[in-house]
Amino acid sequence: MTDKQSLRREARERRRGFVAALDPLAHRLAFKVLPTPLATLIGGRGTIALYHAVDDEAPAQRLAHALAAQGKTLALPCVLDRLGSMEFRRWHPDDPLLSGPFGTSHPAAENGLVVPDVIIAPLLAFDSAMGRLGQGGGYYDRSFARHDTALRIGLAWSVQQMAQVPVDPWDLPLHAVLTETSLIEGPIEGPPA
């Protein structure tokens, strides 16, 4: 099996090429609407953690207005250090964002901390078993473990699905992945609503 670093390079190149070739209108419309299967999956969970996309990541922030219209409390992650620590701060789509490490953007500290019921996470690659290959810093792995009752949903471009991604014993599988074309649910059931 290919090592994680090589697979990350391949996944970044694949994603970059896909996004560069995507019709600009299709790109602007991607992830603007909350698909019914995702709304059903989220159900009555009230606090949804999104992320502010970096580079050619699937843009999770585009789901914000639709989720807010459903009365959901939104949050964005804030990276705390280089050791993989991250917290979630309350956020509204009209709130200004501060610059963070690694090109990230996050809400101000005075927005307050929240505990997410759903964590929508970026990724480089995923597979049908809902294995997730991230950037390698462990931020989401630690957050998934810390918020173990949260529904774990990956957001990706369809080209990011691979036959198999390597997983370590501490990697928690996703419950589902939303792409620009479909919602793919995993073999594990989500935590209770």
From TrEMBL:
Substrate binds at residue 57. InterPro entries: FTHF_cligase, FTHF_cligase-like_sf, NagB/RpiA_transferase-like. Its cofactor is Mg(2+). It is an enzyme of class 6 (ligase). Its EC number is 6.3.3.2. One of its GO terms (molecular function) is metal ion binding. It comes from the Bacteria. One of its GO terms (biological process) is tetrahydrofolate interconversion. ATP binds at residues 4-8, 132-140. It catalyses: (6S)-5-formyl-5,6,7,8-tetrahydrofolate + ATP = (6R)-5,10-methenyltetrahydrofolate + ADP + phosphate. It holds the Pfam family 5-FTHF_cyc-lig. Keywords: ATP-binding, Ligase, Magnesium, Metal-binding, Nucleotide-binding. SUPFAM superfamilies: NagB/RpiA/CoA transferase-like. Gene3D superfamilies: NagB/RpiA/CoA transferase-like. NCBIfam families: MTHFS_bact. PANTHER family: 5-FORMYLTETRAHYDROFOLATE CYCLO-LIGASE, ATPASE INHIBITOR/5-FORMYLTETRAHYDROFOLATE CYCLO-LIGASE. This is 5-formyltetrahydrofolate cyclo-ligase.
